[in-house]
Amino acid sequence: MWARVLAAIVLSPLCIGSSHAADPIVGRASVTDGDTLVIRGNRIRLHGIDAPESAQLCQDAAGRDYRCGQRAALALSDKIGQATVSCEPKDQDRYGRLVSVCSAGGVDLNGWMVEQGHALAYRQYSAAYVGQEEGARAAKRGIWAGAFTPPWDWRRGQREGGSASAATAPTARPSAPGASGAPAPAGAECLIKGNISRSGEKIYHVPGSRDYDRTVISTSSGERMFCTEDEAKAAGWRAPGR
Question: What single-letter DSSP state applies at residue 128?
């Protein structure tokens, strides 16, 4: 008898918390940045996407710097306008924010941000918006029109204590989903991914090859993009399959 009562006392807060977390959060939203909202005091992180940070700079098609993080936040704010936003919580991050899929006027705001090139699909946590990212990249919408550093790499640079100029300047012109590397020479499309395996092998993947789409490049780990196979080989990378 007492064991059952004790179990009910212990478990009831967990049940309440779980039920509460699943309830939609609905109301007028204020935009903190391109992937964060506040609704009725609830801090909400948009699930499956990552937008440039507020202080982050990107380059437009003409090579001019602009505040892409600020532009992302303004785009999200303009899209919401005076509409009521509904957010379906999926998780809670380490900062206490509710990771959610949010919509306004029947539009998935998470997907819209990626589709318009104001954010990237956050593959580390979800593949939900990879298709929207590929569409934005192909159409050169938003940040895909020029050069940019993926926001996760930009934050890593900040944490590692880079200078203000190094931390904010764009260092990549990604040509494929999740890829980043040195800016391509004028007129060149550098689509070959130079990956470093767990064993330290340097292997390059050309578009259309078996592992190309699932290979993600991390410049902070020494990986990079190449314009030609000869360039990759000269830098010490080899083709897969050996």
Answer: T
Contact 119, 141 (CB under 8 A): no
Residue 220 has pLDDT above 80, yes or no: no
Q: Specify whether 45 is catalytic.
A: yes
Q: Is the model more confident about 212 or about 140?
A: 140
> Is 97 one of the annotated active-site residues of the chain?
yes
The answer to whether the beta carbons of residues 161 and 139 sit under 8 Å apart is: no
Choosing from 71, 97, 123, 224, the catalytic residue is 97
Alpha helices in the chain (DSSP H): 2-22, 68-80, 109-115, 130-139, 151-159, 164-168, 229-234
Strand positions, DSSP E, 47-93: 49-50, 58-59, 65-66, 85-92
The conformation of residue 228, written as its DSSP 8-state character, comes to: S
Average confidence (pLDDT) over 153-158: 86
CA 143/CA 56 separation, integer angstroms = 12
Task: Please identify which of the residues 45, 71, 137, 224 carries the catalytic annotation.
Answer: 45
| pTM for the structure as a whole | 0.63
Between the CA of residue 162 and those of 51, 159, 165, 174, 218, what are the distances in Å?
Answer: 20, 8, 8, 21, 17
